[in-house]
Amino acid sequence: MKFQYLQTQSQRAAFAGIFVILLPNFLPNLFDPLGRAYPSMFSEWNAPSPKHIHLLEGALHQQISEKQQSDIWSPLANQGWKPCLDSATVPFDSEKSQGYIQVFLDGGLNQQRMGICDAVAVAKILNATLVIPHLEVNPVWQDSSSFTDIFDVDHFIDVLKNEVSIVKEVPSKYSWSTREYYGTGIRPTRIKTAPVHASANWYLENVLPMLNSHGIAAIAPFSHRLAFDNLPKEIQLLRCKVNFEALVFVPHIRTLGDTLLQRLRTSPTTKIKGENGNGNGKFIVLHLRFDKDMASHSACDFGGGKAEKLALAKYRQVIWQGRVVKTQFSNEELRHQGRCPLTPEEIGLSLRALGFNNDTRLYLASHKVYGGEARISTLRKMFPLMEDKKSIASEKERAQVEGKASLLAAVDYYVSMHTDIFISASPGNMHNAMLGYRAYRNMKTIRPNMVLLSQLFLNGTMEWSEFQQAVENGHKNRQGQIRVRKETQSIYTYPIPDCMCH
């Protein structure tokens, strides 16, 4: 009887386990395992504890010297380069336009910015009139924000009026040329085969004839559809002018951004040396690139245990159907190669090692963090003055951007443009965009040495002093020093020498 009882109990436990595993399949809305913007319920049930306790203890009790503080907060010295954007020698004559160019841009805010810059350049190459680019609904965040919701369209047109003709919408004779029209069949005015990083000649040979025949051409998709090399200097300068001068956010985004900047610099709780209460306090922006998409695509282990591994594996299989090359490597191999995004705990330890302490004002620029507050609790312990949009702006102040991922990202982008120091937890589009903008303005940006940091974190016996010294030494030349663009590299990430001159 006792054996039967134990067997029955064992069967019940097994059925209960299977039920918990299968329940999300029958009630997806309850668990939302595929919700890209939300942390996994499984990881929240198993909130990860700190993985590097010995380093955390050292970070919380470290003493920062005055020299360290002075070095880390000091602005970049003048490096001998300045913006150099005068490109048009003869104003554009709209009456000589070859026709109208439409582009449809996908991706997030930073990808769309690059696409807009390239679209202006292509219009210039073809001597065509550009229709304000159409922004596709973002499949990750389900954001339908348009160009005019994000960018000041009148400023955009005015800054570029001598370079290229731009109109807000197609003329009435082409009113049929819509996104819906191109989504319902093969159309003679749509180009779907524009190669990635196409040359100027490709556009002249393949798109110009279409303009001559139909008066209009639509290119979709258009992400990364113009090469970075072997283009006329005036085209390169034009791309820079669009990125750094023509694309500014709409007034209400700039107003909210300025409000955040003022509060970050004047908060009475900030104790950074040099704070005088008049808006001169210093702060850093940390772009915490740690959402569920990133975590699952990286194929790394982030310390959430078996439940988190299963949740990420399932998400990866459904979203990418297993097409994640990194899954062929073990977690240790990926970390040795520096291919695992830093967790909030790891980037926090890195910042403390660089000389930032618990008096440092830190602004968190990110969307939903995978794992929620539980995931960033250790980071908050190291930086108790950490803020984000919700903590320093009221619900009323955020009303025009709340629930709109592109507008929320634009606010973070604006604050990141003006911070004393910017750092991203892992390389990505935001990191690349800020690297380029802040190089253009000669502002400090710390580039994490992913290979070094990953290998340091794999060493489970390293003492804090050794870790701190290794991190500091490994980042001395990664704080905004000039890097000249190499062949095939992005002009938007490395604006020298194309956008700047001595």
From TrEMBL:
Pfam families: O-FucT. Keywords: Carbohydrate metabolism, Fucose metabolism, Glycoprotein, Glycosyltransferase, Membrane, Transferase, Transmembrane, Transmembrane helix. The chain crosses the membrane at residues 12-31. The keyword ATP-binding does not apply. GO terms for molecular function: glycosyltransferase activity. Pathway: Glycan metabolism. It comes from the Eukaryota. GO terms for biological process: fucose metabolic process. It is found in: Membrane. It is a single-pass membrane protein. One of its GO terms (cellular component) is membrane. Belongs to the glycosyltransferase GT106 family. This is O-fucosyltransferase family protein. It comes from Lactuca virosa.
